[in-house]
Write a structure and sequence with these properties.
Structural class: alpha+beta
Number of strands: 26
């Protein structure tokens, strides 16, 4: 048995922090998997509750030098993020103002000015930089090092050197002070974190909007009275009343009435969707025109909205393959930088430089090398891309899936429910109204899709289906029922139509067709433009499959195969060296979806469909597959750009700092700018055309 928990981690600021926490969790007995996200400050841990306890996991994080507590509710987390962003912004503004003042005072070269500079530096170090020093000390106590270590060493060295120059210049043979450098370094670091905090809120905006969709109360009809109750008090089976313009509180099925419902925030579908009796509605969506009553079905964590939110959170917390490179490097990066800074100091002293110059150069190396950008490079891109995907009606389950989609070269499409709507409709009827009414009554208790097509056709003609007194479903042959004293049989005909007989005499027939999904032909054209080869894979008859393939433009057809045969075909394609994606309805195609390199599940509004596959298409539109692949390719480009910037920045900046071309203040500004650059570059994915 495995449980999964989300833990809020305090004090992480770079890739090294992220790696320390992850290693600490992975080394805890009973932990099966741990992912740590610097952007969200969360650890997601899968563990065996029989081998370890939750407080053991929390203690493992604390023992590694970071704060840990159980994840807070959405509202509490939102409030805390807002409070933290405001606090950082306030500290950044004050520190920058004091940095300007300290720069002016440093030009006076008088003893009183030095004492004022000392006071300013102490204030900024304690008030604005207190967390940094506390985190660095905690890391040191646990024999680890991170970005806070580098900043603390750099500013601490500048401060101690300046103290010596202030109170005992002759004893230490020093004269210059670097109080203003310590102030500016901390001001830039805190400013960078304030901007990052604001940018992080933008990256999680899609998730935040989803969480806020559900209304607080529901209007429930109980014992003949309507009353407003908290959503948490709604129980399965409650009859809920929804009026025009109101949000639908929980998932359910319409009992009576009809309307058009705006599902755009959940499915990405821009146009309101018609809803009638028997149709499912999703909690959090908006009723537009009519009024209706519906029965509550899925509540709480089992609701569609809750499942979508949870899947998005899992995706945003996941670790993309590209991230592993950054994690491996960051594990040895900070200790290597400390040694390099010491070597730089020694080299300058041996070269005959003044201690002040040697110290300033070593401090520059410490500050410039902070691996903040490295830790943000991949998670920022994954978070923005998955958030953008959700707004397009796509649930992409994690960074690994996001990267994998860009390599797809073969797309296998199921026919029924994927290329076609999977909802047969009566396209022609040769039957009188009385016979139609009796046929609809016979089909009333049937769960077969063809039965629904006849019932919908009767309803469109304004005919109500009477209740049958007897009913028998004959496997593969249709139904037989007694309706209003007449024996009615509805069965498949030799020509593929549906034949109705009443009391043994022919009474009419229906021609039924499963329409091709709107936009399917255009979607197949897009797949070709992306360089994908399309295959239609179905259990239907070859002639029916060829007819559908001919309409939408698919040349390769594999028909008449059972679910096991679909898996075999996927395996065969992969054996040819292809990277295969499979698109199906997420239920009967589950084995093939699992066998493919990436599975696209058509979101039929069921929990099963949402859980199946690597990507769920919440909007019934095959073009979503093309959008997912284009978004994947764009996100992969951004990840590579971010890592190039993060690594390239250090490759260029560290030697420049060691050679004395960068002073500590410039180094701290450049370091903060590098982190902000990768976040802003990732945010481009919110606007990029897909």
């Amino acid at each position: 048995m495995t449980e999964t928990v989300n833990i809020h981690v305090e004090g992480m600021s770079c890739a090294a922090c992220q790696a320390h926490v992850r290693r600490a969790l992975e080394q805890t007995p009973g932990v099966k998997q741990a992912t740590v996200n610097l952007m969200t400050a969360e650890a997601r841990v899968a563990f065996d509750p029989s081998s370890t306890r939750l407080d053991t996991l929390l203690q493992a994080i604390r023992d590694s030098g970071y704060g840990a507590e159980m994840e807070k509710s959405g509202a509490d987390r939102e409030a805390e993020q807002h409070r933290e962003a405001r606090e950082l912004a306030r500290k950044a503004i004050v520190s920058l103002a004091l940095g300007v003042a300290s720069m002016a005072l440093s030009m006076l070269h008088t003893a009183p000015a030095r004492y004022v500079l000392l006071a300013i530096a102490l204030f900024v170090m304690i008030w604005a930089g207190g967390r940094i020093y506390a985190a660095a000390w905690s890391a040191a106590r646990h024999a680890s090092a991170d970005m806070n270590t580098l900043v603390a060493l750099g500013t601490g060295a500048a401060f101690v050197y300046s103290l010596a120059a202030t109170f005992a210049p002759a004893a230490f043979h020093v004269s210059d002070v670097y109080y203003e450098s310590a102030v500016w370094i901390l001001a830039f670091i805190v400013s960078g974190r304030a901007l990052e905090a604001r940018a992080r809120r933008q990256t999680t905006s899609a998730l935040r909007e989803l969480v806020q969709l559900q209304p607080a109360v529901a209007r429930v009809s109980r014992d003949g009275r309507e009353m407003d109750v908290p959503v948490a008090a709604v129980v399965r089976g409650d009859l809920i009343v929804v009026r025009p313009g109101e949000k639908i509180p929980v998932d359910g099925e319409i009992a009576d009435g009809s309307s058009y419902v705006d599902e755009s925030m959940v499915t990405g579908e821009p146009m309101p969707v018609e809803k009638r009796a028997g149709d499912a509605v999703i909690g959090g969506t908006v009723n537009t025109t009519g009024s209706f009553r519906y029965r509550a079905t899925s509540l709480g964590e089992s609701s569609m909205l809750a499942r979508i939110v949870e899947l998005m959170r899992q995706a945003q917390a996941s670790r993309a393959p590209t991230q592993r490179l950054a994690d491996r490097i960051s594990g040895i990066f900070v200790p290597a930088v400390v040694l390099l800074a010491l070597a730089t100091f020694a080299a300058w002293i041996l070269a005959g430089a003044a201690p002040a110059k040697a110290a300033a150069t070593a401090i520059s190396v410490l500050i410039i090398a902070c691996p903040c950008a490295m830790g943000l490079a991949v998670p920022a891109a994954v978070m923005v891309a998955t958030g953008r995907a959700a707004k397009l009606g796509l649930l992409i389950k994690g960074g690994e899936v996001l990267e994998k989609l860009r390599r797809i070269d073969t797309l296998v499409l199921d026919k029924t429910g994927t290329v076609t709507e999977g909802r047969p409709r009566v396209v022609e009827a040769r039957i009188g109204e009385d016979a139609l009414r009796l046929a609809a009554g016979a089909e009333r208790r049937s769960e077969h899709p063809l039965a629904r097509s006849i019932l919908e056709y009767a309803a469109s003609r304004g005919i109500d289906a009477p209740e049958p007194s007897e009913f028998l479903a004959i496997a593969g042959q249709g139904v037989e029922a007694v309706v209003e004293g007449r024996r009615v049989r509805v069965a498949g005909g030799g020509s593929g139509g549906i034949v109705v007989s009443i009391d043994g005499a022919p009474a009419g027939e229906f021609a039924v067709s499963d329409p091709i999904r709107a936009g399917a032909k255009e979607a197949v054209r897009e797949f070709r433009q992306l360089g994908l080869e399309c295959v239609l894979l179905t259990g239907d008859r070859p002639e029916a499959a060829q007819a559908v393939a001919g309409v939408v433009g698919i040349e390769r057809v594999v028909a008449g195969v059972l679910p096991e045969g679909k898996v075999t075909e996927i395996k065969r394609l992969k054996a040819e060296g292809r990277v295969v994606a499979m698109a199906g309805d997420g239920i009967n195609d589950a084995p093939a979806l699992a066998q493919a390199d990436a599975g696209f599940a058509m979101g039929s509004g069921t929990g099963i469909a949402i859980d199946a596959g690597d990507v769920t298409l919440l909007r019934p539109d095959l073009a979503g597959i093309a959008r997912a692949i284009r978004l994947s390719r764009a996100a992969s480009r951004v990840m590579r750009q971010n890592l190039f910037w993060a690594f390239g920045y250090n490759v260029v900046a560290i030697p420049a700092a060691a050679l004395g071309f960068l002073n500590p203040v410039i180094a701290s500004a450049a370091m903060a700018a590098s982190s902000l650059t990768v976040v802003l570059n990732s945010l481009r994915l919110r606007r990029i055309a897909v």
